[in-house]
Amino acid sequence: MGQKPQIFTRRLSRRQAMYLMGGFAGGMTLHACAQSTPTTSETSSEATDTASAPAEPVAASTGSTLWIGYSPLYVALEKGFFEEGGLDLTYNVFSASAEADAAFASNQIQGQNNVTSEAVALAAKGQDYRIIQIADSSLGGDGILARNSIADIAAFKGKEIAVEIGAVSHFFLLQVLEEAGLTANDVTILNVTPDAAAAAYQAGQIDIAVTYSPFLKQANDAQSDGRIIYDTSKMPAAILDVYIFSPQFLEENPTAGEAFVSGIFKGIEFLKTNSDEAYAIVGDRLELAPEDVGTELKGVDLTSLEKNIEMLSNPDSDIYLAKHLQSLGEFLVTQEQIPEAPADLEARLEPKYVQALQASA
Predict the structure, then answer these.
(1) Whole-number Å distance between alpha carbons of 227 and 209
(2) What is the value of pTM for the model shown?
């Protein structure tokens, strides 16, 4: 319980990047031994001991970049909610989504927190996984910062934009540009991680930056020449975050999936019933003041159990996740981000763990 995340990178943390803004310019370009045979009585005794012994907890590693929508995960880790279900979970922080993708593909981690656009791109590369839970939808937690001299999104044409290529901010930007009649060819993309993009904007080194909580609000509050010109409150279906796991891991550890989703929902409940302690836990993870955690959480909708079941298992629902994934795949093809939309996205949904949790309630 209360474990600190492992770090898979030597890059500066996001918080450090916010303060070391001057360094942006350089980073813009970014046992074989004999054994005696036991007697019958010995064998019987050992079998009895084994049957009465508690099951060993299942060990697993997961990881992601830091995000306010994963607050229930941070709470569950600190409060031991995963251990209550028999899951010994290690959480790893990555500086960029590509690092988390690589760790997942090489089985360094068995699970990953991911945004749906990145999950589709991962599938397009042939990576198999199962989505066992929807974490949240962004309702203002992701956004675009722009100087006051830039009147609207259409005025982005010909401008430089700091955004992490191939990550959630990039896919969000592409959707916003399309809404304004623009494409990626109409702007110059500078490949910068979300924390560094916000830091550069805050320092006055870039006029437009795409980022997310907590960097979005921090940079906006610190920089008077500019504002959040567009955020996901204007496009609430654009960004959904999901929890994914390796199919092999889930098959080999049949109790792990339900233990994970149970832990997350206990985390959500703790955020509601013990907000002071919960906000302090999340603030420690994200390096935010507890009161700022409450503000940032207003920018996300933490997906309920009932909505999870509908999104993962009801093909007739307007919010069925497979429909969203398919639309994203087609969009990413038109934007030349993936060669073709994966054909098996629906098969990647695994609702049985949220269904089992509801049945046991």
Answers:
(1) 11
(2) 0.78
